[in-house]
Here is the input.
Amino acid sequence: MISLSVNGKVYELDVPDDTPLLWALRDHLELKGTKYGCGIGECGTCTVHIDGEAMRSCTISVGDVQRKKITTIEGLPEKHPVKQAWIKEQVPQCGYCQPGMIMKVAAHLSQKPTPTADQVISDMDDVICRCGTYPYIKQGIKTAVQIMKKEGKTS
Here is the structure.
């Protein structure tokens, strides 16, 4: 039995400990927001937070994340500044990569509370958008930084 703490709840799963976290989330916990992209950790579509750090769920086994706090896109509050910015700037086109994008930006902003938007943008190079909406993504990041500064979450 594998015990996972996901979005503030503890789940017991009867899966092998080498099961990729992505498939445990999607197939066993029915959390479909985390997307399958490449399966080898290259595209970033499957990004989740593990103990606050953005990580690729397709390359991490459930056995490696027991006793860790896992947050998926469903667990990120609706009023989170990055989600607010994404809506305000109408970032998604097809939307497939957006959960991974949002999770990566949110982790960056929580770990580095005073970044410039350009610093966050440069950290996003490893998350691939198939539609190429990078101008909207960049504007969404800038807006998220502004919202966080306005809310006093950064200086």
Remarks:
- The longest strand covers residues 2-6.
